[in-house]
Specification:
Blueprint lengths: L1 H11 L12 E3 L5 E3 L25 H61 L4 H26 L6 H33 L1
Antiparallel strand pairs: 1-2
Helix pairs in contact: 2-3
Length: about 190
């Protein structure tokens, strides 16, 4: 009778009950089974369930803060690694951009030189061909500088400054109103 009630008492305490004895096994008084029979074929127990803990630990504030610190520490470490990778990528991008610009300028100079040589081969006096190339470049520089000057206003945060100046103007009359009320009060008391 004790052997039947013992697994029920253990199940209520959170411990797993012992496995039932199989056919052909020798029982050793409820402390376990020794079997000479091959294991029976059956469903494989679920491995996704966590094992039962022998002792339950109560969550505490210190454990909570330790977990939060560990989580933020991992996030900041990830942020640091990504920032380093971004910095190196930006440096390489800048170096590649400088290299591409140099190659582009070199190609442009070769193209202009080839156009001048072609014009000279067609019978144009070489100083006139060079002056024409320089004049075309000066016209190009003029339009580029004009475009740059038209975009300077975009760098000054004009809309934000106007918005701030409007809010300061609306606050200014409100601050002037109490002083005028105070002036009336002082003039009224002196009269």
């Amino acid at each position: 009778m004790d052997t039947v009630q013992e697994p029920i008492a253990r199940a209520g305490s959170g411990a797993r009950p012992p496995a039932p004895a199989e056919a052909g096994s020798i029982s050793s008084g409820g402390t376990g089974t020794v079997s000479s029979a091959p294991p029976r074929a059956g469903p494989i127990p679920h491995r996704s369930l966590p094992p039962l803990k022998d002792s339950y630990t109560k969550p505490t504030f210190s454990k909570f803060f330790e977990e939060v610190r560990a989580a933020f520490s991992a996030r900041f470490y990830l942020l640091e690694l990504e920032a380093k990778r971004a910095a190196w990528s930006a440096a390489y991008m800048l170096a590649f951009a400088v290299g591409a610009a140099l190659l582009g300028v070199t190609a442009w100079l070769i193209l202009v030189g080839a156009l001048i040589v072609g014009a000279v081969n067609l019978g144009v006096w070489w100083p006139i061909a060079v002056v024409a190339a320089i004049a075309l470049h000066v016209v190009g520089v003029f339009f580029l500088v004009r475009g740059i000057r038209s975009m300077v206003e975009n760098l000054t945060f004009g809309a934000t400054r106007r918005s701030l100046s409007r809010s300061q103007q609306t606050n200014a009359p409100q601050s002037a109103t109490p002083s005028s009320d105070q002036a009336k009060a002082t003039h009224g008391s002196s009269a």
